[in-house]
Design goal:
Shape of chain A: globular
Strand content of chain A: 25-35%
Oligomer: heterodimer
Order of helices and strands of chain A: EEEHEEHEEHHHEHEHEEEH
CATH architecture of chain A: 3-Layer(aba) Sandwich
Radius of gyration of chain B: 21 Å
Structural class of chain A: alpha/beta
Helix content of chain B: 10-25%
Strand content of chain B: 35-45%
Helix content of chain A: 25-40%
CATH topology of chain A: Rossmann fold
Number of strands of chain A: 12
CATH class of chain A: Alpha Beta
Distance between the termini of chain A: 31 Å
Number of strands of chain B: 21
Strand order of the largest sheet of chain A: 6-9-10-3-11-12
Chain lengths: ~250, ~425
């Protein structure tokens, strides 16, 4: 699904990623852990194609195709989704309008008929239920006045609606209380399937109690210094990151 | 159009045999004053940012009866559902194309002035106002009787459509007697290339009256559109103004709103949209003369290309206006490197127990928001349009009448659809 080879990236000429290698196969869930400033968010921004995040070396492929010169929207349409660490407030645009525009952009890209309001509501209502969200969410401007938990739930709602092949969860657990965390984890777990992959980016192993990655990688100073199974998370919880510093 | 050129046109209007002689002294007095002071220039604070070059280079002629035939126009393209419309073609009222409105007191310009003993109720020394009085036409005025409530909005549709570069000077009076209420739409359509529309709208709201005033200006690219709006409000009256300005080479709105009576309220709102080389200015003065009044100014600009915008908003809270509640906001989106916004929100307070706020922001579209939308598969262009819509949409909520609101949103969408 996603293959990253010797990826180097910089922001404002500052080198952040210094040779990342990672392969995510269909159905797999990988977690990237690391301290603040280790390059975790840079990695997700490079994958999603954010401007100013410049890949200087190496390759980034989705299903054997290089995506480095794809626009962010093309990456999304081709199946990459990121749940934002800090979802953006969009004043004046209500959630329904936004979600419908996004879903229809995707349907159009795949030559499907765009959904009208009734068709869209049918799709969205199921997803709302799944996340224990009220329909009143739909009428509010995107993320405006949403609590931390509501914002993150709204991200997962978008994920369920857009049905990506690769979902990146960037610090999805931050700002969540335990109940919200459980609901979100359940949403994610139910969404797992043999052809869907996940990349979970997290600072703490708290989230990993509820969603179980197949592989864990530790990112330090722009490189993956250690990879392992679930047990690595517990080891990190116990020992911190210092023992991995060279 | 220079000062001297106006002299020629003025002689023509004075020689017209179909207008009342009694109106001539008013015209003459105004034109003498205009000749004395001339056109405004950039040395005047209030005209500092207004560039009159295109106006000065153009030469406009008076609109005569030969310009009043709308037979070649398809008026249905300008219709707004559920409104009663009076049609003005190149400044001439066209009764045969207008709706008849039962129970409405409509007065011609002359009839109105006669009622006021041939004196102006809203004198002004502004050069363009003096020109308006010198050349006044389309003088249809409305007087609402006490407690008269008109549910269906009344629209004055001004169409400019001619081969010549015309000068049109509507002077309109709207007098609302105590406790009366209605919605007035001023709809200006520029159907010819270059013209000069110099409008003066004068509204008086007596005790408890309520007026929703909608002004829609959809101009051709070379039009010059100068608009004066004077509003005087008595106690407990309510005035809501919504302005949509689309295109035109130069569009300038000057509103002066006097809150003379206790408990009166006004809400002034505007959205100016440019495409390429326009100058769009809103100059607003709200005077709080009485206590317990509230006012708001909420104006937005979206600027493209080499266009420029001006917001010159002033709220003055005079000494007796205790318990004033006033808000002032100006927000602008700049969508090109060459577009320019001049924003000048001002607040003058001479009373001590008041609540006043003001603010202004000008900037590009939020990059984080654009990335967020693109990361959901929405194209860059559509992401920008979605954000522009989000920026504007709040203003439309002040329009209470659904038909008009739908029409205005459609005008906005059409403007947006042309952007690439």
């Amino acid at each position: 699904m996603l293959r990253i080879k010797n990826l180097h990236a910089e922001i404002d000429k500052k080198s952040i990623l210094k040779g990342v290698n990672l392969e995510i196969k269909p159905g797999e869930m990988h977690a990237i852990m690391g301290r603040n400033g280790s390059g975790k968010s840079t990695l997700s921004n490079v994958i999603t194609g954010r401007e100013n995040y410049l890949a200087t070396k190496g390759s980034l492929e989705l299903n054997n195709e290089s995506i480095l010169d794809w626009t962010p929207e093309k990456r999304s349409l081709e199946g990459i989704f990121m749940s934002f660490q800090y979802p953006v407030v969009i004043p004046g645009v209500n959630n329904t309008y936004f979600l419908k525009a996004a879903l229809n952009a995707k349907r159009k890209y795949y030559g499907e008929k765009e959904l009208d309001s009734a068709g869209f509501l049918k799709v969205i209502k199921e997803n709302l239920q799944e996340l224990d969200m009220d329909t009143k969410f739909l009428q509010r401007p995107v993320n405006q006045g949403f609590s931390g938990g509501e914002k993150k739930r709204n991200e997962i709602l978008q994920m369920l609606t857009l049905e990506p092949k690769l979902a990146i969860l960037d610090e999805t657990d931050s700002g969540l209380d335990i109940d919200a965390l459980k609901i979100i984890a359940e949403g994610v777990n139910n969404y797992r399937s043999p052809d869907r992959s996940f990349l979970v980016i997290t600072h703490y192993q708290r989230l990993l109690k509820y969603i179980r990655p197949d592989f864990i990688h530790v990112l330090i100073d722009g490189k993956i210094v250690k990879s392992g199974g679930k047990e690595l998370a517990l080891e990190l919880e116990e020992k911190g990151y210092n023992w991995l510093d060279s | 159009m220079k000062k001297l050129d106006f002299q020629n046109e003025f002689e023509k209007i004075i020689d017209r045999n179909y207008s009342s002689k009694k109106i001539q002294p008013l015209r003459k007095k105004a034109f003498d004053k205009f000749s004395e002071i001339g056109l405004p220039n950039k040395n005047l604070e209030d005209w500092r940012f207004t560039n009159l070059n295109h106006f000065l280079k153009s030469s406009y002629t008076l609109s005569g009866l030969e310009h009043s035939d709308p037979s070649e126009l398809d008026l249905s393209q300008f219709s707004i559902p559920n409104t009663d419309t009076l049609v003005f073609v190149n400044g001439h009222y066209k009764k045969e194309f207008s709706d008849t409105i039962d129970g409405l007191k409509l007065l011609s310009g002359q009839e109105y002035l006669e009622l006021k003993n041939w004196s102006l109720q809203y004198p002004s020394e502004c050069p363009f106002e003096l020109l308006n009085t010198s050349f006044m036409d389309s003088g249809m005025s409305i007087i609402l009787e006490e407690s008269q409530i008109i549910k269906k909005p009344i629209r004055f549709l001004f169409i400019v459509s001619a081969k010549e570069e015309l000068m049109i000077s509507p002077k309109i009076h709207i007098d609302c007697s105590p406790n009366s209420s209605f919605t007035f739409i001023e709809h200006q359509v520029g159907h010819s290339d270059n013209f000069f529309m110099n409008t003066s709208i004068n509204c008086y709201l007596d005790r408890g009256a309520s007026l929703d005033h909608i002004k829609i200006q959809s101009n051709s690219q070379k039009a010059v559109n100068i608009n004066k709006v004077h509003v005087k409000q008595s106690r407990d009256s309510q005035y809501t103004f919504f302005y949509l300005a689309l295109d035109s080479q130069l569009s300038r709105l000057d509103i002066k709103n006097d809150l003379n009576g206790k408990g009166s309220e006004c809400s002034l709102n505007g959205l100016s949209l440019s495409s390429e080389n326009e100058q769009l200015g809103s100059h607003i003065i709200t005077n709080h003369y009485s206590p317990y009044c509230s006012s708001s100014q909420n104006f937005k600009n979206i600027l493209y290309g080499n266009s420029s915008g001006i917001f010159n908003g002033k709220t003055v809270v005079h000494q007796d206006a205790q318990k004033t509640d006033s808000k002032q906001s100006n927000k602008n989106l700049i969508l090109s490197n060459n577009a320019l916004m001049n924003s000048n929100p001002q607040l003058e307070i001479y009373a001590d127990d008041v609540k006043c706020s003001h603010g202004s922001t000008t900037g590009a579209l939020d990059e984080d928001a654009i990335f967020y939308l693109r990361s959901r598969g929405i194209s860059l262009m559509n992401a920008q349009k979605l954000l522009m819509k989000g920026f504007a949409v709040e203003l439309f909520d002040v329009i209470k009448n659904e038909s008009i609101k739908t029409f205005i949103i459609q005008e906005f969408e059409n403007w947006l659809a042309e952007k690439t």
